[in-house]
Structure formats: structure tokens, C-alpha cells
Amino acid sequence: MATPTIFCGYGGWLPRHPEIYKNFINRLYNHALQRSRDSLEHEPAVAAFGEAIQGDPVMKSLFDQIFRQVHEQSKVKNFEYLLHQLDYIIVTAPKYETAKDPNGDVIANEPIGVPMYLIFDLLSNTAAAYDLFRMKEFNRALKALLENWGKFLTQPGSNSTLNTTEEGWFSEAGIRHLEENLGEYSFVQTYKCPDPGADDRGFTTWDAFFTRALNDGVRPIEPIPITLPPGGPRTAAYPTPIYNACESTVLRIERNVKKHDQFWLKGQSYSLYDMLNRNDEYAKLFEGGTVYQAFLSPADFHRWHSPIKGTIADIVVVEGTYYAVLPDAGADQGDPDLEGGDPRGALIRSQPFLTIEATRVLIYIKPDDSNVGPMMCFIAVGMAEVSTCQVRVKKGDEVKPGTELGMFHFGGSSHALVFPGGTYFEESKDVKVGEHIWVNKNLGLATRMPGPE
């Protein structure tokens, strides 16, 4: 049984204010138009991507179909325009967008944390893209492009949008956004800033800012008091606390998950065999268990922490897709951000599907406490331009709640915790769909139920 997936906003992936979205899309469109008129050459990485697509008859045909099928709202009119827009993206850092009225007064401020996603968003919500964006050849070509952009974001100069100007991430509006989920703490109180008083807070690259670490003492593990009988072992009557692995917004909790399941346009179900990279042994182990999934916004803390005490048993890196989605008829009626039928945001509405298709890392942890079961799995799901999932542990390492496991780079992302069959996970009362939960916060309790392993 699954908790209902109620969309509580698109977590910074889609701008909340229509004028911000319009400004960004129009600027990209005008940039592409001017480049086309000037007959400018493409950036080398973009040219290589274009050649890979145009050199493959199947991929070229599917892209032609995408441009015929895409919603009229799209301003990416053809493949050449797409390439010119990508030219702009891969040599710039994500910026803080400002929209003004005709008098020059600011009417909205929002970050564009995942700019490349906004280019592919509407294109992805087509039948042809469902086929193309899952092809290995397409994702191989796209990976090379994303890695080139990622390289730029690790170089000096990529911090050009980290400043206190009107369109900087550390402007007044930018700071308010960055501190939106920090509670009583400020940005510099929460994160390690190389130079807290500087305009760029001392971050010399965009990636350094994106992967920033927490200050010592921030987000401490809070032990859950459980009284054991004198001299007695922990039993099912004394459950084990589970801690949040990523700073994120709760998306879904599904119990009694099947080994094999199919994804439909609505009511997506988890399929363990596909999630776990078609490993039959692991799929059997987790069959009948629970999946907890949550998603990160571009402004969140992007490092992963261990949810339990145990030993790293296995690490599997899965090469997958970047922009593949389940095409749908648009946002549902009652969507908090979009009008019913709005075709944008299909990637966000497809997050359970991404656990079987997207680039991801599976980290298996053998719990010290048998009450959790024989194994637990943390899944880091790289969504869109989050093409790099960096693992910071290795097989055999001992971990405890709060130990750093790895991190995402360059965008937003999703993650899941998978509990084995026979283990009951009961979430805490404040863990609800749509709630933002700090990393290391107690998510709930795991109890091993009577029965065969």
C-alpha cells in the first residue's frame, strides 16, 4: 500500500512565478535566434552531441517526431535551436533570476537551479521522447555533454553568479530562498563557507557552492530513547531508529513492494527487480518490504548520510537515463503550482519511475542491528543534469547514522530507502508527504516482524 503522492510544488525545479519562467525561456529563445542569424559555430561539446544525434537515423527521426509532438508552449522549435540553447547553458552557471515590470520594479525573484532541465522539460513529455530518451546511444551522447558542463562548473569563474547583486544567489532575495528551510539558522551558520563575509562567501566554483558541507554540530543525530530490559537484547518490541539520509521533501512511502511491477501513467508502483539493476538475489531479499522516497531541490544540502549503523556490503553504480519521463496529460486538477493540464513538470511527476530508469547509485548496508533486517539499501537517483553521483565510502566500511556516504553534483535529485521484506517501517508523525525533512532527522522506527528470514 502506498501513501498518496500529493504534489506540493516542484521543489525549485520549475519556477513558481510565471514571469520568472517566461523571462528565462524568452532569453534562451532570443539567444538561440541571434546565434542562428549570426551563423555561429556551436560549442565543441554541443557540436559533438549534435553530430551523434544527426549521425544516427533512428535518433534523428525520433527528434523530428518530438518537435512535431511537443506542446505548442515549447519555444524549442527544432534541433538547431536546441543546440544553440545548449551553447548558452554549458558556458554559464545557474543564476538567480529577476523579473521586472515595465517601470523597472522587481515583481519576482527565483533561482534557475536546473536550467538544462527547463530546455528538455516539454520535449520529454512526448511519446517520441519516451523512446528516444531511454536509448543507450542517446544517453551516452548526452552524458558527454553533461560532463563537459560539469567540468566548467568546477573551474574558477563558474562562481560568477555567487554574489550580492540583484541576480546573485547571495542577494537579499537569494539568501531568503537559501534559508527557506534552515529554521532558526542563517546560511553561514548552517554551512561551511570559506569566507563568510565575502560576496561569494568564499566559494571559488559553482560546484563548491552546490556541494557545500554542514558546519560542525549542525544537524546532529538525536538519539531516540528506547528502554531495554535489564541485560536483555534488543527485540522486535524495541524498534531501531532510522535517520534521514538526505535533506529532502517527502514524496512517497509504499509498503509490500513487489519484486516485479509495471509502471502506468498514474499510480506508479515500484518494481524492485528494476530498481536494483535487475539483480534477482537482492530483489528477492527486499520483496514485500517498504520504499521511502523523497526529493531534493537545487537549494538543498546535497550530501548523503547513512540512515543506520552497519557495514557497507555492496555498491552498484547504474548508468541510466537523464530526461526520460512517463508522458502524461499534464498537471492534475488541484496541482499547487500549475493549472490542470499544464504539460510542464512531467519529470517531477515521474519520480517513482525514475528509480528504475535514471542514473543512480545503490548502496547496500548490512545493519549491525538485526532488527532492521539482513540488509538495507540507499538509492541515490540522479535526475536531469545531476549526472554525477559521487560515492565517498567503499565496500567493507563501517558506518553509523550521519556518516557521509556521498553527494550529488550540479542540480536537483531524488533518493530512496528500501527496507527488506519482514521489516516494518513506521514513519514518525511529522514525516508526511510534502514535508521538508532535515538530514539526520529521525524518520521513524524499524521493527523486524516474526517469521522466516
Question: What do you see in this structure?
Answer:
It is a single chain. By secondary structure, the chain is α+β, with helices and mostly antiparallel strands. The protein contains 14 helices and 16 strands. The strands form four sheets. An eight-stranded antiparallel β-sheet has the order 11-7-8-9-13-5-4-15, covered by helices on one side. Strands 3-16-14 form a three-stranded antiparallel β-sheet, with no helix packed on it. It has a three-stranded antiparallel β-sheet with strand order 6-12-10, with no helix packed on it. A hairpin with a 5-residue loop joins strand 1 and strand 2. The chain is globular, with a radius of gyration of 22 Å. It starts with 17 loop residues before the first helix and ends in a 5-residue tail after the last strand. Residues about 1-10 and about 265 have low confidence and may be disordered.
Overall mean confidence score, pLDDT: 89
Q: Structural class, please?
A: alpha+beta
The poorly predicted ranges are 1-8, 263-267
- The order of strands across the largest sheet is 11-7-8-9-13-5-4-15
Largest sheet: 8 strands, antiparallel
Listing every helix as H and every strand as E from the N terminus to the C terminus, the arrangement reads HHHHEEHHHHHHEEHHEEEHHEEEEEEEEE
